[in-house]
Write a structure and sequence with these properties.
Blueprint: H1 2-25, H2 32-56, H3 63-91, H4 99-127
Helix pairs in contact: 1-2, 1-4, 2-3, 2-4, 3-4
């Protein structure tokens, strides 16, 4: 579990300056709260995925690991869409530029999740 939190910390240490740069360069100051919500949402989703996959890593049915991974992609996609469309409905932004910051969060967490899922799969393979 320690490796997960170290990876999360490194990912956030890279992501947050990128978000700050995006917000300052593109003058997205009004979208800072949206970025914070997106980061929080993806932290919760990645923690849930980590806990589930850690338990399934030693499960005899290896298809379950793959199925959860695919299900995670679907959940992330739906959650991101709900966040974007919810923001449009609530804030009525003048344009769709805010999607850049949400996309940055999505990509950062996709990379992070790929890394920790690979680590879990490798550890599971070594223990079998």
């Amino acid at each position: 579990m320690g490796l997960y939190f170290k990876g999360l910390a490194v990912s956030l240490a890279i992501l947050i300056p990128i978000l700050l740069l995006i917000h300052s360069v593109f003058k997205f100051h009004e979208f800072t709260e949206l970025s914070a919500i997106a980061v929080f949402m993806f932290i919760v989703l990645s923690m849930a995925l980590f806990i589930i996959l850690k338990r399934l890593a030693s499960h005899p049915n290896k298809q379950l690991f793959s199925s959860i991974t695919i299900f995670n992609i679907l959940i992330k996609f739906i959650a991101t869409a709900v966040l974007i469309f919810g923001f449009i409905k609530v804030a009525s932004p003048p344009n769709n530029d805010f999607v850049v910051s949400v996309l940055a969060v999505y990509l950062a967490f996709t990379g992070f999740e790929t890394w920790f899922m690979t680590r879990i799969a490798q550890q599971s393979a070594r223990s079998n």
